[in-house]
Amino acid sequence: MSEYRTIKAAGQAELVIKKSRFICQVGRVHTEAEAQAFIAAVRKQEPKATHHVPAYQLGDDDHIQRATDDGEPAGTAGVPMLKTLQEMGLHDVVAVTTRYFGGIKLGAGGLIRAYANSVAAAVHQVGIVKRVMLQTMNLAVPYPQLDSLQHYLTANAITLLNSDYGAAVALTIAVPKSEAAAVATAITNQTAGKVTITLGSLQASEVPVTE
User: How open is the CA angle 115-61-10, to the nearest 5 degrees?
Assistant: First the structure.
């Protein structure tokens, strides 16, 4: 997988459509047991609701996908919710939309839109993050090159993980793996080749996605 996206945190959003309330709660899960526990908790929290429609997909490759309509007409609730998670490119996510019927029937098309939109609203409420693999780099920096290097790091918003001031300055930075070679070249050029660079470990990090 080239990119792993998921929700930033658990949360919810509510839509009111023709007097029916659609409350979608979303959460991050990694196993079916966790997904089922989330669904059970929502059912317990809203025991008087007309429907509790769940959908979830698990794994980097979404090898587990589940959805049910919980009494709504077949194909009008769980499947649209699952399709929304798929279209948003989200992984390891469970969504449960609780419906309180308002007395006005929405029809099949109206239900499909309502359940799909409830998921989108909840996801937008909590936000999306993507996983980025960061390459750590250890820099041995002579003091005469420190100011120039710090200016470069600041100007390029490069994360400084650690600094140690001894006979020389030891800095540890983190950059996206795909940019590591370019950053190493830039640092070498910036400091006339006087900074020694060694690669460290790879670390996974989550960064917000703006859509």
Answer: 45
